[in-house]
Design a protein that fits this description.
Distance between the termini: 13 Å
Strand content: 15-25%
Mean pLDDT: 97
Number of helices: 6
Order of helices and strands: EHEHHEHEEEHEH
Structural class: alpha/beta
Shape: globular
Radius of gyration: 17 Å
Bound molecules: flavin mononucleotide
Helix content: 25-40%
Strand order of the largest sheet: 2-1-3-6-7
């Protein structure tokens, strides 16, 4: 049985986010194919995610004990490390990911939990796990150099040891006259197919 962490990062009301429509379809199809797997949904705007404060650094970098799992910040890193698969749903914001998702990654990037330092440099601790990034964008980027959200996620996930990463992007949603419904439908089809193999 696998544990899937469904990480959602969007301020829009339920039912309005195009990223979430595609990601929810992914999750639904995944559930159908893997009824015994556990899906944990983490809606970042409903969590106490904040920018790191000076007093948080000691927790992140200091020694850990049995109580660390209950720490309001460290609990996210432990939860992340315990998952087997990650579904990350977020719109493109200013060429990248929403700040709350970056703030969450700052909680999750903890030495000894998601990666460790060695004499040869840092090494990821989450090898063999897989992730999918589901993103809606107003314009068209593909893998253009100024697209920095998917690239960042792929890089930080690889830093944690996660190499198997898929991206499902729906683009050009804010272009005048765009067939938004059609594009979302196309995204849902792609997501449904990808979920069967995830
Ligand atoms: C704060 C903010 C910043 C955005 N920045 C970009 C951007 O840099 N490039 C882009 O193509 N679209 C940008 N958009 C548009 C969204 O990516 C687009 O509308 C997307 O479909 C939103 O997905 P959602 O429906 O899941 O929220 C931005 C939207 C917001 C609200």
């Amino acid at each position: 049985m696998s544990k899937v962490l469904y990480i959602k990062a969007n301020i829009k009301a339920e039912g309005e986010s195009r990223s979430f429509k595609v990601a929810d379809a992914f999750i639904e199809e995944y559930k159908k194919n893997n009824p015994n797997d556990e899906i944990v949904t983490l809606d970042l705007y409903k969590e106490n995610i904040d920018f790191l404060r000076p007093e948080d650094l000691g927790k992140l970098f200091g020694p850990k004990d049995e109580n660390s799992k209950n720490n309001p910040i460290l609990k996210y890193a432990y939860e992340f490390a315990e998952a087997d698969k990650y579904v990350i749903a977020a719109p493109m914001w200013n060429l990248s990911i929403p700040a709350i998702l970056k703030a969450y990654i700052d909680y999750v990037s903890v030495s000894g939990i998601t990666f460790k330092y060695t004499a040869e440099g840092p090494v990821g601790l989450l090898n063999g796990k897989k992730a999918v990034h589901i993103v809606a964008r107003g314009g068209e980027y593909g893998d253009a150099p100024y697209e920095m959200g998917d690239k960042y996620l792929r890089t930080i996930l690889a830093f944690f040891g996660i190499q198997d990463i898929d991206t499902i992007a729906i683009e050009n949603l804010d272009i005048m006259g765009a067939d938004v419904e059609g594009k979302v439908k196309e995204g849902i089809e792609k997501a449904t197919n990808a979920a069967k193999r995830f």
